[in-house]
Design brief:
With 315 residues, the chain is mostly helical. The relative contact order is 0.15. The chain has one domain. Strands 1-5-4 form a 3-stranded antiparallel β-sheet, covered by helices on one side. The longest helix is centred in the C-terminal third of the chain and has 45 residues.
Length: 315
């Protein structure tokens, strides 16, 4: 297991010079690590068993597993309620009339690992842009002042150089700050877009997935529908067609167990809460940044008004 997550350790290193803030680091460091770790966990089938196991008479198990993995499985939404073992075999698994009862196909589980990795890339894009635009300027300005082996005399000289630089280049880094604000706005837009993207990926189930899981425990056992079983069913149905001895098409219904969905349902519950918290913090940070800029602009505007103009405005 440690070999699987060993590649993530490189993202855990602490930068000697920080060129962003804590909310920014939650996007490109914490979220990227979480998504890559989840992607590795899903792809590591040797630790959690086969992705699918199907049972059907007269069809070799290996053939049935491969067929149902490629062509997807399905559940019957009307069979999500009821007592397991009495009314239904499993939530969503029960007798249905072909062409009459609604059937929901589940194909996304083949793409979960790829989608998680793609999301990690998207979360790192603003960091990559800001690192390219920043160009190591802050690291050069630090001039080893954070090093414990530099003596006090050398530190004082470098501090004087640093102060002189800021005095001489006052108001010349507006574009530098503007590009950082753009990256912060990209972080906020990205996390909001990710919520809608995952909601589309899961057929509109992700937007209320976390809240539905919280409400699930408050409902009556015979009436409640487990949202995790609805979105990530552990047992599904699969229909296999083949030609019989007489040349007619024979249909075989099988039950398929999806052990990967035990992991997937927990992953997306966590991601729902994480994305909500991250979007709130990013929104607050963005509003604070706009307020600081507006306050600075208003201060500059007030400082440029002459006393005679103030009297005129008062009138």
């Amino acid at each position: 297991m440690f070999d699987v997550f060993g590649s993530v350790k490189g993202l855990l290193k602490i930068d000697q010079v920080c060129i962003d803030n804590n909310v920014f680091r939650m996007h490109y460091k914490a979220t990227v690590i979480i998504l890559i770790a989840f992607s590795l966990l899903v792809t590591s089938r040797q630790y959690i068993g086969d992705p699918i196991d199907c049972i059907v008479d007269e069809i070799p198990l290996g053939v049935m597993d491969t067929y149902c993995w490629i062509y997807s499985t399905f559940t019957v939404p009307e069979r999500l309620t009821g007592v397991t073992g009495r009314d239904v075999a499993q939530p969503g698994v029960g007798p249905h009339r072909e062409g009459v009862d609604e059937v929901k196909y589940h194909k996304y589980y083949q793409w979960v690992c790829f989608v998680l990795f793609f999301q990690a890339i998207l979360f790192y894009v603003p960091r990559y842009l800001w690192k390219s635009w920043e160009g190591g300027r802050l690291k050069m300005l630090v001039m080893d002042l954070n090093s414990p082996i530099v003596n006090e005399e050398c530190k004082n000289d470098r501090k004087k150089i640093l102060v002189d630089y800021f005095v001489d280049n006052l108001k010349r880094h507006n574009f530098y700050a503007f590009r950082f604000f753009v990256c912060e706005a990209m972080n906020f837009a990205n996390v909001i877009g990710q919520i809608f993207f995952v909601d589309f990926f899961l057929d509109g189930e992700f937007s209320t997935y976390g809240s539905d899981v919280l409400k699930f425990t408050e409902m009556e056992p015979d009436e409640r529908i487990d949202p995790m079983a609805r979105v990530f069913p552990k047992v599904t149905k699969c229909t296999f067609h083949k030609y019989g001895p007489s040349g007619s098409v024979q249909k075989f219904d099988g039950l398929c167990v999806l052990p990967l969905n035990i992991v997937n349902e927990k992953i997306y519950v966590f991601l729902w809460f994480w994305f909500i918290i991250l979007s709130i913090l990013s929104g607050i940070s963005l509003v604070y940044r706009v307020a600081v800029v507006m306050d600075k602009c208003m201060s500059l505007y007030r400082n440029t008004i002459k006393p005679t103009e103030i009297k005129y405005i008062a009138k």
